[in-house]
Specification:
Blueprint: E1 3-9, E2 14-19, E3 24-28, H1 29-36, H2 40-52, H3 54-63, H4 66-71
Antiparallel strand pairs: 1-2, 2-3
Length: 80
């Protein structure tokens, strides 16, 4: 299977991955945030990742790397 698209659907609050064989995988982002984000800063970081890098978000979810990601420096912070 070849992935043909990966995007966040704001209407369903899910990331949708579409494949060339017609298969669609949908990840419920609200459930992910409820499971991993311990505060508003972490929720904000996951939202940023979701909107700006949905494929990276999916890869972290599927690999189990979200917890480690949230322990590192946040991507969307600007350097002081």
């Amino acid at each position: 299977m070849k992935r043909i698209s990966c995007q966040y659907n704001i209407d369903t609050a899910c990331v949708e991955i579409k494949y060339d064989n017609g298969a669609v995988v949908s990840i419920d982002c609200v459930s992910i945030e409820d499971e991993y984000a311990r505060n508003m800063l972490e929720r904000s970081e996951l939202d940023w990742l979701l909107c700006n890098k949905p494929l990276e978000y999916v890869q972290l979810v599927l690999s189990g790397g979200l917890e480690k990601y949230l322990q590192g420096p946040y991507e969307h912070r600007l350097s002081d």
